[in-house]
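Sat 14:20. Reprocessing the chain from the morning session after the first attempt stalled halfway. Input below, unchanged.
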Amino acid sequence: MTDLTKLSAAALADKLAAREVSSVEATQAHLDRIAAVDADVHAFLHVNEHALDVAADIDRRRAAGDDLGPLAGVPLAIKDVLVTTDMPSTSGSKILEGYMSPYDATVVSRSRAAGLVPLGKTNMDEFAMGSSTEHSAYGPTRNPWDLTRIPGGSGGGSAAAVAAFEAPLALGSDTGGSIRQPAHVTGTVGIKPTYGGVSRYGAIALASSLDQVGPVTRTVLDAGLLHDVIGGHDPHDSTSLAHDWPSFAAAAREGASGQGLKGLKVGVIRELPDSGFQAGVSESFRAALAAMEAQGAEIVEISAPHFEYGVAAYYLILPAEASSNLAKFDSVRFGLRVDVPGGTVEDVMAKTRDAGFGDEVKRRIILGTYALSAGYYDAYYGSAQKVRTLIQRDFAEAFAQVDVIATPSAPTTAFRLGEKIDDPLQMYLNDVTTIPANLAGVPGISIPSGLAAEDGLPVGIQFLAPAHEDARLYRVGAALEALLVDSWGGPILDRAPALGANGGVR
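Finished this time. Tokens:
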């Protein structure tokens, strides 16, 4: 592994701007890293064969004196839920195998315009349905800390690519924790922006009222730099907010300078039970809170009585919206088509969906269609939306008392591949702390908080803020990150086991 792949995106960008290194050199280093380790990790579904051409063009523009963005020349991994014109966009599903989009997702086009170099498309649970990346039609991704364990989901490919030093930056999507939970189990940083703060145009929809695109990185500053590139209003997205967003990178720098914790009121949810959390996760969470308190933060117990119903409400709302969104995969307009000689359109559609959709997708389509059916709509989908409103009210009442809410990012460290795949309910409970933010549309961040004593695997702490207050999360996250990294003597990924010692990748 070269020093270039070990650098943060911010540090690499500084070297590129100073012409100490070229984008071609940086891109080649990351392509070499992918070639060296991705057969084991399987973070990527497709590697961009034009990456070096893009990098060379950035180098030419820099040499010509063009005005380039702060991340120009830095490589970027892209979750396969985001459509691209020059690489297949499959959303982890056989039904879209080989599909080439006629347009780029807005976040992809903005990344290209900013001079970022697309390295490739990352693996994911099919149509973002899962918490382990085991539901990908193209095989599971493995956690770089321990190849026998999951990297989280649905965006395990993006998190694993960043953790394995295959990419300094990645784009993900978060419907119920699909950025934050993978960040938790891989020792990376993941941000779910305010709903509408980042365009969803070109993100293959799972649940339109819950999905949100965001950054996956190794530092809070890197996330802020990428968020500055992809965020802002998009007229192509009807849910995009016309809001005047501050610089998130500037907020991260402010927090890292020591201005993020003193006087901060941090809410801890009274109803969040210790019993459902791994001991090492709870210990790391309490230690992080103690570190914040020692720097002048105030820990305040708050009540959020309806959060406990979040998972149940989510798994009615999401399947209902998914069953509607996935209706477009009908064997007629695009994607896989299984011919049935002499059959009707309905026969072809049934065969195509049977061959193209995996078990988890079929399970959720059936559940969602049932929840929306006549006679059950009010009892299931309607009731779930009422619970959603109660959760939104819990957030409003909590944020009247505190600046941010803190929780563990997930109940456990990375579990072993295959351990929960046959138990959907246990898999769903992995998102118990992340789901409420999606139901309410508020922003959330997960940063590494340490290693669990039981297994030495990464643990994350999550902070939630009111809608539009994403910058607050960057200040708080960067302040705690600086404090913890200083106490550890370096980034948490420096403590990952070497390949062969525990199955990890270094």
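The chain has 17 helices and eleven strands.
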